[in-house]
Amino acid sequence: MIGELLASYGHHLSVLVMASCLPLAFATLPCLDAPPAIQRAVLSVLQAQIRQTKIDSATRLAELSLQKTAAYTRIGSKFYPVLSLPHEIVSAIFVACLPVHGRVRPSKKTAPWILTQVCSHWRAVALSTAELWASLDLELSRQRDLQTGNRVVVLKPGCERIWNLWLSRAGSRPLSLTLRQKERSRTLADQLLPYFLRDFKFAHQLQRLEADISPSQFRWLIPANASLKHLTHLAVGLDHTTAQTLPGRAAPLTSLVIREHLPNSLPYLLAPTLTRLEIGRNLALVDFYNILSLCPLLVHFRGMVRATPACDQIRYPSVVLQDMVSLQINTPYASRDQAGALDCVRALGILTLPNLRTLHINVAGRAAHDLLAAFLSRSACYNGPYWTKPL
């Protein structure tokens, strides 16, 4: 009986013996009609191979761990001066890598994002430095809504995640926010903003706000009851209602760029704390005089000034601004002739600016040149250059 079994399954037994010496991939299982004894023997050999493989793997892993530890030790034995700097100094160096103008456009190729990809130490320092994440420059675009067919204002894909990430890392730091919009033509899309930009809950942290948005969108971004106690620089378009309430909410405002506004709203925006003022629409000569009277600390002014028939009936007293360093008065496009250029220079007739360093103005005709020469003589501001642009 035993002889017959060996004769019948001698091939399987030889394979079984070989399986204990060869890799598992070369072992051949017995056929389905092989006796249970042969099947159990094959299973026993396979289990033994598995146990041996686990032992060999554990041994190899232990060897690799020792080699890894040795490699770390060799690296740690070398001295890298940059990694020995105190946390505060590294943080200050990182902040110095930000753009001088204070507008940070998120990019993995520039600070602060790139600073988190160098090593774990730098990443920890960058993530714990709130000032690195306190400035954000995003671009608004427009796309067609699939449900309504109307064009709506949106942020580029991924910007919402960046928005939340930046603000969470900034903590309680004063914020700088810039929203750009290439398309300036006003449509129904300019009434709203993306939902997560509405009722900006971090308005009380804003220190700088520059936004290419309509006055209606500004009301969505900054609620009427929001405090702007840290705001020092603002560049937006404003309507009459916002202009009335803004000065009381933004007491420390020193820099104001008005991109669009209603003429009768201008007096509400002027404050004695302003040192920089830029206005994007035409100003009557009387409005220009009111600005100079209400903002005695102005250092920089830029705007378009035009004279009206009523201006000829008013005699303006001279205004002396000791702090003004830069003055740019443009001619409205509709009156770029000698008369329009004379309006620009007439604005200088009421000014004495002893510390002026930069003057941009349009000049045309003998009368305009005479007024300019009288202004320069009266101000005695010969220490710096000035530029005149002939029409």
Automatic annotation (TrEMBL):
Keyword Signal: yes
Entry-linked Gene3D superfamilies: 1.20.1280.50
The organism's place on the tree of life at top rank: Eukaryota
Signal peptide positions (record): 1-27
Keywords: Signal
Record protein name field: F-box domain-containing protein
Source organism per UniProt: Mycena chlorophos
Record lineage: Eukaryota, Fungi, Dikarya, Basidiomycota, Agaricomycotina
